[in-house]
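Minutes, structural biology subgroup

Action item carried over from last meeting: produce the structure token record for M56 family metallopeptidase (Thomasclavelia spiroformis). EB confirmed the sequence was re-checked against the source entry. Recorded below for completeness.
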Amino acid sequence: MNPIITFFRLKVIKEITVFNILTIIWIIGCMHKLRQLYCQIKQTNYLFEHIKKSSNQMKISDFLPNYIGKDYPVFLTNLVPSPMVLLFKKAILVPNIKYTEIEISNILHHEATHLNQCDALIKRFIQILVILYWWFPLIYVLEKQINLFLEMRIDSKVSKKMTKKESLIYLKTLLSVKSKTLENNIFPFSQISSFTIFENKNIVKFRIEYFLEGNFKYKTKKPILFLLFILLISTNLVIFEPSYNNEPFLEGTYEADSFGHILHKKDGTFWLVLNDGTISGEITNLKDSSLSNLKIIEE
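Output recorded by EB:
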């Protein structure tokens, strides 16, 4: 039998198998992760409702009169350390910090692009994957990389129509927001679902280096992306297992190498004799190809 299946069917306590124990552990882990996500969503909703009641509500057009696009509400609040959007909340949160006109323009364009791209759906999908595959270490690497990719994609879209000088000013905004965020760290934002223009110094550094190297100009070819997608899906559809004999199915059968000779009895019947001298049974089809090389011995 397959050694993997044998291991999973191994009984640990009475009728409880290894598979049962692993399944219970997986379910407990999923429930724990699901509870964490629930608390995160609950905290996010509470924060947003509190911000709506206590902050100064404006719109993008109040800051950018010539803005073209959906005029999302902008909340100026002391409850956030950095400009951000909360998942599935069509609003931009900006801390009550003194920003220059250029900085506020770049900030609002950045966060509005997050809302326009529906990045919240992608982030929520990744969170669901983390719940299901919490036991797989690389899922957390994937989560971080997806978040980084989303931020770099927004950087790319925001700066797409900018001149080189404007792009450098945009980068300067990232650094400026980073500096002001470190001075205004007033809330445990690792516990809420959000997109912030500033995550941490390593991410900002990578985004700036990526930006300066001009990597936004290079796009992965669609066939390669398609193949990568198929590869990702196929890893969950194909299971590689070692070759093994299905013992219940093969019970009562013999390998051809174990055949010895054919015994022709006086009553006219033919019987198969194995190498160890055991008579396995009567032969009903003497023309079977597996018997063609066997000698017939008279009784």
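Discussion: Residues 254-298 form one domain.
Next step: EB to file the record with the rest of the batch.
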